Structures are given as structure tokens and as C-alpha cells.
Amino acid sequence: MSEHAAVLFANEAFYMAFDRRDVEAMEDVWATRAAVTCIHPGWNPIEGRDSVMESWQAILSGSGAPKIKCSNATAHVIGGVAYVTCHEILDRGFLAATNVFVREDGSWKMVHHHAGTAPPPVESDEPESPPTMQ
Amino acid sequence: MSEHAAVLFANEAFYMAFDRRDVEAMEDVWATRAAVTCIHPGWNPIEGRDSVMESWQAILSGSGAPKIKCSNATAHVIGGVAYVTCHEILDRGFLAATNVFVREDGSWKMVHHHAGTAPPPVESDEPESPPTMQ
Questions:
Q1: How far is CA B25 from CA B14, B17, B57, in A?
Q2: What is the pLDDT of residues B9-53, one digit of tens each?
Q3: Contact A96 B83 (CB under 8 A)
Q4: Residue-number span of the structural domain to which B89 is assigned
Q5: What does the pLDDT read at residue A41?
Q6: For chain A, what is the domain count?
Q7: Do the domain assignments include residue B85?
Q8: What is the pLDDT of residues A71-125, one digit of tens each?
Q9: Is the residue at B34 inside a domain?
Q10: Angstrom distances, CA of residue B30 to CA of A126, B49, B89, B111
């Protein structure tokens, strides 16, 4: 498996754990030695594995946990670090995400997740309207 | 200068270029050899230096370009890659950002920027309310 494919596999494992509300699988997705951070949509950044895992426990066990699918994932591998940009397709809208991974014991593990609101994925090369800053 | 300080310096150069609407300085912030990507608030991911720079040209030359300051920047250095999480303080609200950097010719250069809406920065350790997913 190429490094790009391995990163996309780890990224997919994250969304599978999310979609299935599987806290143990989510814990396995994240790095255990490297420092981890997370920016949920509309939330302040969270630092540290304990705090990040508590946030996932709250999200995945909550009644409002959304169904989620990843699309348009693109991996960028730079040595032992990689990041993925992708869309998240939820029940009620779309998000754009940045997911950062590092290699730990031969596997790609997530060290950072950032998701924020986005329009539906663009399929054509047509230019978009200028972005707003908030 | 420590690597962490050098990364935060590069991060600050990004926000200075943004705040001053300085397109040339913004072009100098971003990597020229590594692939670059950008997720503006509420926008789809943009890939490739030409497209990313066109987006900055549009933003910085637009009449609605906001004044912007960075706060609470935290750098994570992993070999030749680093990422920063921080708040962006604008005229009309707050954003949370992820900025990824790589080393090119001895300097830290931006390869990815992702900003999305956030509440005001939290100064205390009090737990926040659970996040919403959109």
C-alpha cells in the first residue's frame, strides 16, 4: 500500500468510527504519543488526548450525533507527517475538514482534526464566489 | 531561535500580511515547491499555489477584507512539518484556524490554511458546552 493510500485508509477509519459512534475505534484512530488537538465546528480548539477523547465521547454518545460520510479526500504526505483535506457529508449539511496524521509504530495516527461549515462539494472547475471571512 | 518560535514567527508573518492586505508578503509566506491547499471559512478546499494565491488576491484586494489579529497560537513541530492552532480575531467575530508549515530552504513556509467560525477564545479551564456538528 502506498503512503498516500495508507493515509487515506487511516482517514477513512476515522470517519467509520465517527459514523458508527464507535468510541473505542475512535480512540484507536488517534495518536497516543504525539500531542493531539481538535477543532470541532464552531468550537474552540481542544488540546491533549484526554480532552479530545472526552469531546468525542460526548459527541458519539449524544442523541444528536450525526451520520457522516467523507468525500473528495486528498492526502498530502510530507515525510512522517500527512494531512488530508476532505468534505464531510452529514444529514443536514456539509463541512470541510483538515485531518493531520503522524506515523506511530508503522501506522498513520491522527494528531489533529478541524472541521468547519462548507458549501456542497464543487464538481466542476467553475470559479466560486469570493469567500466571506466569517 | 527554537523551532517552535520560528514556526510561530512564520505564523505571525501570515497574519501580518493578511492584516496589511499585502499580497506580495502573502505570496512569500506560502511554500513554492510543496503542494499547497487552503480552506477559507465557508468555502470549499482550494488546491494548488496558483488557485490559493488567486483567492488571497481576491480577499486582500476586496473592499470587505477584514482587519485580523492572531491570538492563542500554539505550535506543534514534528520533524520538518509543523502545524499551528490559533484564534483569529476579526472586526466582526472570531475564527479558529489550523495552519500547516513545512521547511523550505531553511524557512518555515505555509502549505495549508483552514479557518472556520469559533466562539470567543476561552480563557479559563471551565468545560464548554457540547459542540454542534454544523
A1: 8, 5, 11
A2: 999 999 999 999 999 999 999 999 999 999 999 999 999 999 999
A3: no
A4: 3-117
A5: 94
A6: 1
A7: yes
A8: 999 999 998 999 999 999 998 899 999 999 999 999 999 999 999 989 888 765 5
A9: yes
A10: 24, 8, 21, 6
Q: Hey, what's the cell of B114?
A: 483552514
**Which of chain B's residues have a Cβ under 8 Å away from the Cβ of A121?**
44
What is the spatial distance between Cα B49 and Cα A77, in angstroms, rounded to a whole number? 17
Chain A residues with CB under 8 Å of B102 CB are 78
What digits encode the pLDDT tens for the residues B87-112? 999 988 999 999 999 999 999 999 99
Going through chain A in order, the beta strands assigned E by DSSP cover 37-39, 46-47, 68-78, 81-90, 93-104, 107-117
Query: Is the distance from CB of A70 to CB of A101 less than 8 angstroms?
Result: no
Residue B127 included in any domain: no
How far, in Å, CA of B3 to CA of B17, rounded?
Answer: 21
- A84 lies in some domain: yes
Q: Residue A51 maps to which CATH number?
A: 3.10.450.50
Given B40, B86, B131, which is nearest A40 (Cβ)?
Answer: B131
